[in-house]
């Protein structure tokens, strides 16, 4: 597997964040667009498996194929840059500013959204035979998902918003663990194995991923879901983005940076207690 120690991949995390800040606008948008599109296809793939087999676990087991593909091709998800890019700012890398971090996040959001929307339109056409028939079973399922995860939260009020936020936090805790886990290995097989596990966990548990939702909810609206664009943004996308930021930066990027990149000095050996000295003398 060619394992890389935590102290080494923690440095890679900061370096990766710095490189993304200085990436050109064109490259940032293209890589984000492709990442959003591939992840959307993976979501459509997983939902198709779930509907056709009646087994959600099987869909979750195979969903990570999309994440692995986009990561290995060097594409960027908003969830990943939420975790990596701020580390370059925290580490005070030359030229890295708050403006640069926000620029990267904004460009990646736009690219991810455009890519996911492209696939949403394409899949809506497929599920309805060019909008000439009612959605098939998979299309109907996507519409129901959109309703339950917007109007369902709204019906619960503040409790629903809290639940949505926590699901988003937990999502990027897992997804960013997958991003970082891929840095633990220098081999393709090792990277895939490390990424697969946390991505499987987030998808099966139904956590809220901002880019997956960029596909699910617009396509749900196109497929006849009984909710609006305002419902989608207020009762899902915006809180999910905020929760993803908190989850990835706090529980993955920040923790690894604090303990592996900026590890504290080891404690001195504990002096022997007075009773221990007495026992050692008596033994002599």
From TrEMBL:
Keyword Transmembrane: yes
Membrane topology: Multi-pass membrane protein
Bilayer-spanning residue ranges: 32-51, 57-90, 102-131, 196-218, 238-258
Keywords associated with the record: Membrane, Transmembrane, Transmembrane helix
Pfam families: Form_Nir_trans
Compartment annotation: Membrane
Highest rank taxon of the organism: Bacteria
Main location as per UniProt: membrane
Any one cellular-component term (Gene Ontology): plasma membrane
Molecular function via GO: formate transmembrane transporter activity
Recorded family membership: Belongs to the FNT transporter (TC 1.A.16) family.
Protein name, per record: Formate transporter
């Amino acid at each position: 597997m060619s394992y890389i120690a935590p102290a080494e991949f923690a440095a890679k995390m900061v370096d990766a964040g710095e490189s993304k800040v200085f990436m050109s606008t064109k490259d940032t948008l293209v890589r984000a667009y492709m990442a959003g599109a591939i992840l959307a296809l993976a979501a459509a793939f997983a939902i198709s498996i779930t509907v056709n087999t009646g087994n959600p676990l099987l869909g979750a087991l195979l969903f990570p194929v999309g994440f692995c593909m986009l990561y290995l091709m060097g594409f960027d998800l908003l969830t990943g840059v939420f975790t990596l890019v701020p580390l370059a700012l925290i580490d005070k890398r030359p030229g890295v500013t708050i403006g640069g971090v926000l620029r990267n996040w904004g460009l990646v959001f736009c690219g991810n959204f455009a890519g996911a929307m492209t696939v949403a339109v394409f899949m809506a056409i497929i599920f309805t035979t060019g909008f000439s028939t009612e959605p098939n079973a998979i299309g109907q399922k996507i519409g129901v998902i959109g309703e339950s995860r917007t109007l369902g939260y709204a019906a619960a009020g503040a409790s629903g918003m809290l639940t949505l936020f926590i699901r988003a936090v937990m999502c990027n805790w897992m997804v960013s663990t997958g991003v970082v886990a891929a840095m633990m290995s220098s081999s393709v097989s090792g990277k895939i194995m490390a990424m697969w596990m946390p991505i499987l966990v987030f998808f099966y548990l139904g956590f809220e991923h901002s880019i997956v939702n960029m596909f699910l909810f617009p396509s749900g609206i196109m497929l006849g879901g009984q909710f609006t664009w305002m419902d989608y943004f207020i009762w899902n996308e915006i809180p999910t983005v905020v929760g993803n930021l908190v989850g990835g930066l706090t529980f993955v990027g920040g923790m690894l940076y604090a303990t592996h990149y900026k590890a504290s000095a080891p404690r001195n050996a504990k002096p022997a207690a007075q009773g221990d000295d007495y026992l050692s003398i008596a033994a002599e």
